[in-house]
Amino acid sequence: MKSYFILDCPNLKQIANNLYEFLIRNNSLNKVNFFWNPLTRDEIKQIYHGNTALIKWFDDLNVRIRDIAFTCWSDTVATAPHIDEPPVIAKINIPVLNTKDTYNVWWDNDGNEIDRVECITPIVLRSDIPHGVILGQTHKKPRLQFSFCFYDEPISYLGPTKEEEQQARKTFYERFKKYGSVTLEESLRGKTVWSDFN
Ligand SMILES: [Fe+2]
């Protein structure tokens, strides 16, 4: 499976501006104590109802938001190489501020770099192998990105083997069968479960 896939996003400027305004409006940047900052359900709803360009783009990609976080690298908070909490495999990252000359990097289990991409475009990011962020010499702070995960993991962009895709679908089903309406068959066909915001 690939480490990342660069997504075409014609309205990136508008989407990123809107996400930045959300952070300012909610005074979020004054409350940052960690690199990873998960949004509350109410905050997720604000974005769902207030960022039309973003939701239209996700609709076009056929993904439904499950969780949103923003990441902040400042003089006081940073990140180190890590593996995301299972079972998430594929997230979508959107650059918002000062992401030029900063890089998503992936390593193998021996610590050898296997991939790197500058964080200037939205990507599908593989998060179940060691990954992190490296800053170049000309980076600026604070560096802000938004990170989204979905009811239907967009791992198909990462070119998984049939087995890897099947496994991800099964995990998805296990995780969300509590929502009631999705069957394993529906899940394997890629049907989404989306009850929170309707
Ligand atoms: Fe991560």
Summary of the model, kept short:
This protein has five helices and nine strands, in the order E-H-E-H-H-E-E-E-E-E-E-E-H-H. The chain is of the alpha+beta class and 198 residues long.
The secondary-structure element order is: EHEHHEEEEEEEHH
Structural class: alpha+beta
Helix share of residues? 25-40%
CATH architecture: Sandwich
Number of strands: 9
Major beta sheet, strand line-up: 1-7-4-9-3-2
Features:
198 residues; alpha+beta; Jelly Rolls; six-stranded antiparallel beta sheet; three-stranded antiparallel beta sheet; 9 strands; globular; disordered C terminus; binds fe (ii) ion
Question: Can you tell me about this structure?
Answer:
This protein has 198 residues and is an alpha+beta fold. The chain has one domain (4-155): q2cbj1_9rhob like domain (Jelly Rolls, Sandwich). Helix content is 28%, strand content 26%. The protein has helices spanning 12-25, 41-50, 52-61, 162-176, 184-189, and strands at 4-6, 36-38, 65-73, 90-97, 102-107, 113-118, 123-126, 131-135, 143-150. A 6-stranded antiparallel β-sheet has the order 1-7-4-9-3-2. Strands 6-5-8 form a 3-stranded antiparallel β-sheet, with no helix packed on it. A hairpin with a 5-residue loop joins β5 and β6. The termini are far apart. It binds fe (ii) ion (FE2). Fe (ii) ion binds at residues 82, 84, 127, 131.
Helix and strand arrangement:
Elements: E1 4-6, H1 12-25, E2 36-38, H2 41-50, H3 52-61, E3 65-73, E4 90-97, E5 102-107, E6 113-118, E7 123-126, E8 131-135, E9 143-150, H4 162-176, H5 184-189
Antiparallel strand pairs: 1-7, 2-3, 3-9, 4-7, 4-9, 5-6, 5-8
The structure holds fe (ii) ion.
Fe (ii) ion is lined by residues 82, 84, 127, 131.
